[in-house]
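Translate sequence into structure tokens.
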Amino acid sequence: MIVMSVLTALVLLALVTQMGIVAVQRAFPPQGRMIEVEGATLHVVDIGSRDSGPPIVMLHGASSNLEAMRRPLGDILAGDRRVILIDRPGHGWSTRASRQDSTPQIQARMIDEALHKLGIDRAILVVHSWSGALGARIALDHPHRVAGLVMLAPVTHPWRGGVGRYNELIAMPVIGPLLAYTITLPLGYVLAESGARNVFLPQTMPDGFVKDSATPLLLRPREFIANAYDLVTLKESVAAQVARYGEISVPVTVIAGEPDKTVRTDVHARPFAATVRNAKLIVLPDLGHMVQNAVPDLVKAEIETMIGNIAPAQAAAD
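Result follows.
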């Protein structure tokens, strides 16, 4: 009887999950175009002016999608610049053929290919959190594509501890898919608001953020699993690239806060800025992890300053 009850409950949860997937995808449909690259299909939103200097490419962190970068920062930047927002492989409306394609190295290659197909030679990369490692990897492996790098609360170095037991479970064979396709979506709906609020601390999460950022897309099983793989493989990935950071030669601006309890500034932003030769570090007191939401005008000003400095330098080089 106990076994039958458990099986029945799992079947019901699986049905609820499938209905939830349909509802979530209807509520948050894709907003851009799809670009095929090797191993993935990337969802890209291209907004703003086409005739305004180097385009700005925005890459989101873990447990999110491009909407987390679009509102408000991307929309503000698009008033003057061409802004390209990309759902990372496996996130939002982007897919990837293999869940194991979770490393910054692989995703950097995919992003580079997508930008090539968009006809973008060089861009300003604006990256947040997990994508700090990705932005650094693009600058290392595809430097021809990067005019400048703006990093918001970036992950760049190995850290003590893990990434949460639930992520480790979801990334496990059999057990992970079983959980993802049964309890993750219904449980996630209950916990999404509180989880998002914690990431904003000490700032207050804006009203309607979970909906405006299309966060419920994360609760779909295939994305939740991809996100877990991204997280559990990240420490080893950054450990492998730390020794190369001195190779980065493009202008870099790092903006982080204290106390950021999600990505500690002393572990990541400070040592990264100390290693990269052309890095500018801005550490703001009483600023949490969501830099793009808390100080979008400052981020915009720093991007404009970077672009203003790049143009004369490029002219002198030519």
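Note: The chain has a mean pLDDT of 94.
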